[in-house]
């Protein structure tokens, strides 16, 4: 129990996540890679949609994860959702997103050179094995 929180109030929501739950909302899981972005959607009613987009396609969209969500919501809702308008997120229950872009840059030794400065006594703050 943390100070300021009632004893019966948990820091984490322990209620189970029911995919395709009856509330009629979408659950998205997205992996944005250097070349492709994969979008997985658990849709209301329990069916699954999977979509693969180019991670960079400025002639067609500004952001691949947003575009993937827009396309699935558009197809599932049967109504056009213009790219230049904000998405209505009221039917989205969750979005989980991961990326391999930074990890790949480190592994391939690409990217900008950086330096880390720390004050005395904190030399072990960052340990890269």
Automatic annotation (TrEMBL):
UniProt record, GO biological process: glutathione metabolic process
Residues of the Hydantoinase/oxoprolinase N-terminal domain: 28-128
Protein name: 5-oxoprolinase
GO molecular function list: 5-oxoprolinase (ATP-hydrolyzing) activity
Organism: Mustela putorius furo (European domestic ferret)
Transmembrane region(s): none
Listed GO CC annotations: cytosol
Xref: InterPro entries: Hydant_A_N, Oxoprolinase-like
Domain of life: Eukaryota
């Amino acid at each position: 129990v943390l100070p300021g929180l009632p004893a019966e109030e948990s820091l984490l929501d322990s209620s189970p996540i029911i995919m395709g739950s009856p509330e009629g909302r979408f659950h998205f899981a997205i992996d944005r890679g250097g070349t492709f972005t994969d979008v997985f959607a658990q849709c209301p009613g329990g069916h699954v949609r999977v979509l693969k987009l180019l991670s960079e396609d400025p002639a067609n969209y500004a952001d691949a994860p947003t575009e993937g969500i827009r396309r699935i919501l558009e197809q599932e809702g049967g109504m056009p959702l213009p790219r230049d308008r904000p998405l209505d997120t009221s039917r989205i229950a969750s979005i989980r997103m991961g990326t391999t872009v930074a990890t790949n840059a480190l592994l391939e030794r690409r990217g900008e050179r950086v330096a880390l400065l720390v004050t005395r006594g904190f030399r072990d703050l960052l340990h890269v094995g």
